[in-house]
Design goal:
The chain is α/β, with parallel strands linked by helices and about 190 residues long. About 30% of the residues lie in helices and about 15% in strands. It has a single domain, classed as Rossmann fold (3-Layer(aba) Sandwich), CATH 3.40.50. It contains seven helices and six strands. Strands 3-2-1-4-5-6 form a six-stranded parallel beta sheet, with helices on both faces. It is globular and about 40 Å long. The C terminus is likely disordered.
């Protein structure tokens, strides 16, 4: 792997060219081990995903949600419940509303055009090689594949992380901040 490989996955504010990240929902922002939230009718955003999305936004990356959905699956409600809807704003792209879904490259082209972003500035983040990774790299985007298990194959323009928690490190090149521990006096250490 070239020494500057990770630089290609850095946010523009941290020496790279990435300004936008298109993030998948299921198994990317959620954990399949979590039960479906009956009020949301979907699995909730995990605490690690919530923290990572805030850190990505703090790194200067504009977030967009790009999710395959069926009628009634409004991911906006889950983002709101997680307290991160503000990070995505009106950049929530749901396949049932658009009438096109991943892996069709047209949905990626649509989002790039809608946001006025060149493929070289955009990162696709997801857990499905066929839906989230392959169409994105075919368009010249970079892609981050999230899986507990590393694939034997890797596409040019793709990297692998085992958890959404590693995304901010990839975008900034800085080690993750350890969580603050409660101080015996009640405040953070």
């Amino acid at each position: 792997m070239p020494a500057d490989h990770n630089l290609t996955f850095r946010a523009a504010a941290h020496g790279g060219s990435l300004t936008h990240a298109f993030v998948d929902y299921g198994r990317t922002l959620t954990d399949p081990a979590d039960p479906v939230d009956l009020d949301l009718c979907m699995r909730p955003v995990t605490p690690a995903a919530r923290t990572s999305m805030r850190a990505a936004a703090d790194a200067g990356v504009t977030l967009a949600l790009l999710s395959n959905t069926g009628p009634g699956q409004d991911r906006r409600r889950a983002l709101q419940a997680a307290g991160i809807a503000d990070l995505f704003g009106d950049r929530v792209y749901l396949s049932h509303e658009l009438g096109i879904s991943k892996p069709d490259r047209v949905v990626f082209e649509y989002v790039l055009t809608d946001l006025g972003v060149d493929p070289e500035q955009a990162l696709s983040v997801g857990n499905n090689i066929d839906n989230d990774i392959s169409p994105a790299v075919q368009l010249g985007m970079r892609a981050v594949f999230i899986s507990r298990w590393q694939l034997g194959k890797c596409f040019p323009g793709m990297t692998w992380i085992s958890s959404i928690a590693a995304l901010p490190v990839l975008l900034t090149g800085k080690p993750a901040e350890p969580p603050s521990t409660p101080h015996p006096g009640g405040g953070a250490a």
